[in-house]
C-alpha cells in the first residue's frame, strides 16, 4: 500500500536508487518464497507487487530526470532562455542556402 501512495509524490522527490533497490528486493524475495517449503504464495505475491510497483516508480523517476537533463542541455548550448522558443532554422546565418534553413533539426522539436 505504501508503494501505491508514492505515485502521488512529485517525481523530483522520488529516489531512483531507493526505488530500484526496493524493486530488486521484492523480486529476490519473490523467488525465495517460491523455493522454500512450504511454498508461501501470499508472501510471494506481496513481494512481487512490491517489485512491480517500485520498478515502475523507478522508471518514472528515471525518465523524469532524463527529461530534466535534456531540457537543461538544450538551454546550455549557448542560447539564452529567451532564444529557446525561436526555431533553429530562423536563427541560421543568411549565408546558408535556403534548403538548409527549411530542414528540420532535432533541436526544433
Automatic annotation (TrEMBL):
Report the subcellular localization: Mitochondrion inner membrane
User: Which segments show compositional bias classed as Basic and acidic residues?
Assistant: 96-109
Which superkingdom heads the taxonomic lineage of this protein's source? Answer: Eukaryota
Is Transmembrane there in the keyword field?
A: yes
UniProt keyword annotations, A-Z? Membrane, Mitochondrion, Mitochondrion inner membrane, Pyruvate, Transmembrane, Transmembrane helix, Transport
Tell me where it mainly resides: mitochondrion
Region listing for Disordered, in residue ranges: 76-109
The processes (GO biological process) annotated in the record are: pyruvate import into mitochondria
What are the record's GO terms for cellular component?
mitochondrial inner membrane
Q: Which Pfam families match?
A: MPC
Membrane-related topology note: Multi-pass membrane protein
What's this protein's family per the entry? Belongs to the mitochondrial pyruvate carrier (MPC) (TC 2.A.105) family.
* Name of the protein described by the UniProt record: Mitochondrial pyruvate carrier
Organism (species): Eumeta variegata
* UniProt lineage: Eukaryota, Metazoa, Ecdysozoa, Arthropoda, Hexapoda
Q: Gene of origin?
A: MPC2
Amino acid at each position: 500500500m505504501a508503494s501505491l501512495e508514492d505515485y502521488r509524490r512529485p517525481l523530483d522527490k522520488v529516489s531512483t536508487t531507493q526505488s530500484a533497490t526496493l524493486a530488486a528486493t521484492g523480486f529476490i524475495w519473490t523467488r525465495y518464497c517460491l523455493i522454500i517449503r512450504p511454498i508461501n504464495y501470499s508472501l510471494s505475491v506481496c513481494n512481487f507487487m512490491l517489485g512491480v510497483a517500485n520498478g515502475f516508480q523507478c522508471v518514472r523517476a528515471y525518465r523524469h530526470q532524463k527529461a530534466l537533463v535534456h531540457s537543461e542541455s538544450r538551454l546550455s548550448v549557448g542560447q539564452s532562455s529567451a532564444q529557446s522558443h525561436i526555431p533553429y532554422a530562423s536563427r541560421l546565418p543568411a549565408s546558408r542556402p535556403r534548403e538548409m534553413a527549411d530542414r528540420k533539426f532535432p533541436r526544433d522539436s
